[in-house]
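Input chain follows. Return structure tokens only.
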Amino acid sequence: MAKRTTRAAVAVAAAALLLTACSNGGSDSGGSAGDEPTTGGTIHMLQNADFSYLDPARGFDGGVNAFYRLIYRGLTMQAAGDAEDPNAIVPDMAESLGTASEDGLTWTYTLKDGLAFDNGDPITSAEVAFGISRAWDPEIGIGSPWLKNTIEAPADYLGPYQSGEHPGIETPDEHTIVFHLTEPFPEFDNVLAQPNAVAFPVGTGAGDEFINDVIASGPYTVETYTPGSLIRLERNDHWDADTDDVRKAYPDAWEFEIGLDGATIDERLMAGQGADANAISGRIQPATLARIQAPDLADRVETADAYCTTYMGMNTTKAPFDQVEVRQAINYAIDRASLQTASGGNQLADPATTITPPAVSGHKDFDLYPSDDYTGDPEKARELLASVGLEDGFSFTLDIRSQPIMQAQAESIQQALAGIDVDVELNVIDTSTYYETIGTPSQQSDAAITGWCPDWASSASTMVPPLVDGRLITDKGNSNLAQINDEGINARIDEIKAMTDLEAANVEWGEFDEEVMALAPMAPLLWEKGVFLPGGNIANYIPNTSMTDLTIIGLKDPSVG
């Protein structure tokens, strides 16, 4: 996710912001991580594009997931970005992680005392059950698929607005909530840490109602929302810090300035004048790299490893991508060295040959489509195309986001594939609607550049399966962009998911990655690293190429700016 680059879906996230679809990774800190934040002041987020959705049942990419942590709470959550293990899952509104039944089919949680929404209404098990059940709504529930994939529900259940209470979720009293699963899933605590597993007041949130009145459960509430321009958050007076072991909520307010050009953002951060000393953003632009080596800026630079994979998904339901030889040919022909250059060079990206990045548990190192220095092997590609009668090439349409780096990446692919007589037409889609568009099979073109991050980085179980499980193809919010539905792949997913030894399972997920790439439903392109430049007054900023934890960031001196 996106984590979605969507998402898990997900991708290199909305606004290239914090960044892609879905879960977590580490950082090599420069200047701010060791600084102690002070309570107070306003932090400014400078970003190019708006968030996909403020509704967590709909949004599912790294940028908006980070934003959700500021205003929504669930039973569990990913640990703080400065924790000893930032990938761990910890209790949030629940007193502890879940208690599983002996057969693994029932999970029980107990809510803490003192939980409330920003209007003062108490949060009970009923509000948690209602919020989670929204994931089943056919229009709203286009975000993280994990709730629907694990909690038992009849096929005709359409969420709380159409079908009423969720039959697979029990609330025996105000503090207890019980989930019934379709099959044992040892990682269910991780499922409830997904952005759509949050509490909502019963009966609220239908359609676009929440945009005018977001009811928050986290430390901040939405004071102002001007789509495409500004989001201002202020403190939620009914949030009790004693019930929250993760969110530090140092600043009094957050301002998200939207619609800024990437070069403008970098210029403002480098200058660091006035309120921009209190600003953060997504990754810096490649053109800015050389300039931030200056002595007065270098101390502020932060870097982060790649926890996401940028890839090109090929729609296997459309000719000629319904032929494995064609998809393999594309994998051979792509010049990943050129893609690396287009993305800012080796400081910002490494060529990707697998779906699972090296930083994620379960990665296996392999390259089924090798070439000298990752420059591509057009001869092998032409040989494969000729084997299926396409020696004269073909043409296809490639969906891309309206972002400079993605357009540069698309042009690199265009140039490489022109060498094997494959003509690529670019379909440029606005960033704010990109993931919804490519996640709607009826609107997909032949291929799309996107990205994927693990929904939890401690396991590769969320890295490859969501992209290739044919049983998860949906009319909206679809992460299987290839729309591949292979019985062997589906059975292999079930086999590994049934393993109770999670370390052994991770080894098998690495093998599975290689098995999937033999069928080539996608072409891994890059593992995009991050270089960031926070304002000089920012403290405890630990960037992450999947999802930066905003809840631990503060200011060194709140009186500045």
